[in-house]
Amino acid sequence: MAIPFLLDQLRIPADMFHIYLVLNNLVNVRMGTLMSAMHIIVLAVLGAYVIMGRPLQWKGLIRYGIISVVLTMASIGGMRVIVENAVPHDYKLDDVFVGMDFITPYPQAKLHTDLPAPLPPVGPDGRLAAIVDRGFLRVGFFPDRLPFVYRNSEGRIAGYDAEMAHLLAIDLGVDLEFVKLQPGTLLEILDEGQCDLVMTGSVITVNRLKKMTFTRPYMDQTMAFLVPDHKISKFNSAASLAQLDSLKIGVPDDPFIRQAVTKLIPTVQLEVLNSPRPYLRGKRPDLDAVVQSAEGGSAWSLIYPAYSVAVPMPVVVKAPTAYPVAQRDAEFAQFVSSWIDIKESEGELDRLFNHWITGRDSGQKEHRWCFVRDVMGLGE
C-alpha cells in the first residue's frame, strides 16, 4: 500500500509498481529469508556463549561488523550497476503498438490526405452497384482515432476499422481508397458524396440518426477518462467525481458524450478537444482529464505510460459503434450490416478485437525481458 501511495505523491508513473513487485520478490524476500536464518543462528551462538560464561570477542565482532557493512555496500553498488547497465530502461510498448500491422497482408491502399473530388452520382441501382462499377471503395477516416484508425510507424493506415475496410473491399472485389477527414465534417462528407462510408469508430447517437444512416453496431465503446496515474483514484468512482469542484475536461465534439459527462459531474467545465495528443504531451495543463472510450484510451496509455484509463464505477456508459453512410444510402447500410453479421459468424470480429483492442495478438513474438534468463543466463 505504501509504494502506490509514494508513486502518486511523487507523480511517478504507476507502471513502476511492477518493477517493485519483481525486485521485491527477487531480492527483498530472499534477502529477508537469509537474514532471518542468520539472525536465528547468531542468537543461538550468542546465547550459548552467555550460558557457558565465555567472554565475547569484541574485536572480532567489530571486525566482522565492518566487513559486513563493506560487503553490504558492495552488494548494493553491484545491484545498482546491474540495474543501470544490464536492465533495459527504454520503454518499448509504444513502439510495439505504433508498429502494429494488419493480421493479414493487404495490397497498398490509396491515401488522400486532401479531400478528393466528389464521387460520381449514384445511379438507380444504388451505391453498392456504383462501387462495383467504378472498381474502388472510398472510406473516410478521422486522424488520431486509436486503435480504430491511425498511421503506424511505417506510415500506413492501420487499426481495427482500417482492417475491416480492407476486408470489405476484398469481399466486394474492388480496390480501396482512404480519405483523411477533418473533425466536424462527417455529415458534410457523406451528403456531398465524397466517401462511400466512414469507418473510424463512430458512435451512434440520436442526433446523428436524424441526419445519416448507420450500419448495425459491431462493438460497444465504454466512456472513460484519460488521466495522469496519480489522479486515477479520483476518477474511477462516480461518488468521488461528484465531490470534485472546478473540473475542466476535454471532450470530443459529440453531444452524447457532453451530456453523459455533465450528468455525471454537474459542475464540470467542458472544452471540445478533437485529439487527446496535446493534453498527453503536457500542452494543456489547464485540463484535468480528457474523455475517451476505454478501448481508445488504453491504446493512448500505451504510447503515454504516465496516463491511465479510469471508468467511473458503478456508472458505466456504453455507446454502440457502427459505420455511418449518407441517409439516402440505407440499402448500402443494410448490405454492410449483413456483411458484418457474416464476419462475426466467421470469427473475424473476435480476431480483430483480440489483435487491435486487447493486444493479445499484437505480433510481438519475442520474449519479454526476464532477469533470470537475460541477466543471469538461466533457463528459457
Give a description of the structure.
- The chain is of the alpha/beta class.
- It has 3 domains: 2-93, no CATH class; 102-218 and 323-357, Periplasmic binding protein-like II (D-Maltodextrin-Binding Protein, domain 2), CATH 3.40.190; 220-319, Periplasmic binding protein-like II (D-Maltodextrin-Binding Protein, domain 2, 3-Layer(aba) Sandwich).
- The chain is built from 16 helices and 15 strands.
- Strands 7, 9, 10, 11, 12, 13 and 14 form a 7-stranded mixed beta sheet that branches.
Mean pLDDT: 84
CATH superfamily of the largest domain: Periplasmic binding protein-like II
Strand content: 15-25%
Proper CATH architecture of the largest domain: 3-Layer(aba) Sandwich
Low-confidence stretches: 363-380
Shape: elongated
**CATH C-level label of the largest domain:** Alpha Beta
Report the structural category: alpha/beta
Percentage of residues in helical conformation: 40-55%
Give the terminus-to-terminus CA distance.
33 Å
Number of strands: 15
